[in-house]
């Protein structure tokens, strides 16, 4: 079943005008199950057993992502896992590991803190500098030494130097945190987050209508989240547009991130409104 197109904001067009395809902007229609990703790490034949697809709702996006959050000026070494997807703080990511070098990485992580860096990469733009720590919260090791993992996004980081590339990437990283808003107006930031939530609800509602689903009231999407973790949650729903997600991940200002998401959702809502009007006039179209 077709999902609604999320149309890029003007800032998206300026930053990625040659990269973004509006048809790639996907928003899951079920507000309880907004974020869905299952990634397999081999271009060889499909394995017989696949990990269950897990969903991440807003309730997964806690205000703090680690019991002892690192300081932003700390420099640490972190094993990296380049992937064609973007992990956000608070998001849940199921993975299947069977490539040899990453099985080696898993054996090491099982003896340490079960944390590694997920960093976006593709053939056109290469490997990004900013990524997100994935913490293994559940794992299963199979008899053939494959692993099924459930990871949760934690802190963001920026790569400062690659330490080694074999058998897998290890880099020195510094931690990223959103800077305080210039005017420090928490109420304005909260109001902006509420506007973004309103647009998300309207997009889901109109999408359901266009796809013949019952038009029911969309439940609370924020779930009492503060603006920063909510902005990460919203970014995680832009599935199918990893370069735009990467741009959102790299922003270090919550207000800027929310404004960009708001513009994208507003453009999408305008598109869906027009599509709904056409459907009313031409029901068979």
TrEMBL record:
GO molecular function list: peptidase activity
Region (Disordered): 40-71
GO BP of this protein: proteolysis
Coiled-coil ranges (or none): 241-275
Keyword Glycoprotein in annotation: no
Keywords for the protein's UniProt record, in alphabetical order: Coiled coil, Hydrolase, Protease
Domain called Lon N-terminal: residue spans: 75-269
Compositional bias per record (Basic and acidic residues), positions renumbered to this chain: 62-71
Pfam families (alphabetical): LON_substr_bdg
InterPro entries listed in its UniProt record: Lon_prtase_N, Lon_prtase_N_sf, PUA-like_sf
Name listed for the protein in its UniProt record: ATP-dependent protease La (LON) domain protein
Species whose genome carries this gene: Abeliophyllum distichum
Lineage of the organism: Eukaryota, Viridiplantae, Streptophyta, Embryophyta, Tracheophyta
